[in-house]
Amino acid sequence: MKIKWSHEALERLIEIEEYISKDSPARAIEFVDQLIVHAELLSGKPRMGRIVPELAAPEIRELLFRQYRIVYRLKANCIEILTVFEGHRLLRADVFGVE
């Protein structure tokens, strides 16, 4: 199944890379690359992530990678990565129109 990254998710990847690059630019690139590779596992197993606890919507799931949450939506013909953020934060239900 094809994976599409939303504008929001791509912006979050840039922010993560910029933050890590303050200490190590090479490590920042490596980390973001690893995160992307981890998300690509979904193409073969789209339901491997859990349903996001804050939303309880079966089509919106998350895959964990180290301390980050990769939130995605299952669609008929693709997987849409909605956002990526630190795991200690909660996802607001109104962000994606799910309550």
- The appropriate CATH architecture is 2-Layer Sandwich
Helix content bin: 25-40%
According to DSSP, the number of beta strands is 5
Report on the biggest sheet: 5 strands, mixed
- Please report the first level of CATH classification, the CATH class: Alpha Beta
Tell me what portion of residues adopts beta-strand conformation. Answer: 25-35%
Structural class: alpha+beta
Shape: globular
- By CATH, the superfamily comes out as RelE-like
CATH fold-level label: YaeB-like fold
The ordered H/E elements are EHHEEEE
Tally of distinct domains:
1
Which parts are unreliable, with pLDDT below 50 for 5 consecutive residues or more? none
Please list the strands of the largest sheet in the order they lie side by side. 1-5-4-3-2
Q: Count up the helices.
A: 2
Q: Mean pLDDT, as a whole number?
A: 89
Description:
With 99 residues, the chain is of the alpha+beta class. It has one domain (2-88): RelE-like (YaeB-like fold, 2-Layer Sandwich). The protein is built from two helices and five strands. A five-stranded mixed beta sheet has the order 1-5-4-3-2. The longest helix has 16 residues, at 25-40. The mean pLDDT is 89.
Question: Summary?
Answer:
It contains 2 helices and 5 strands.
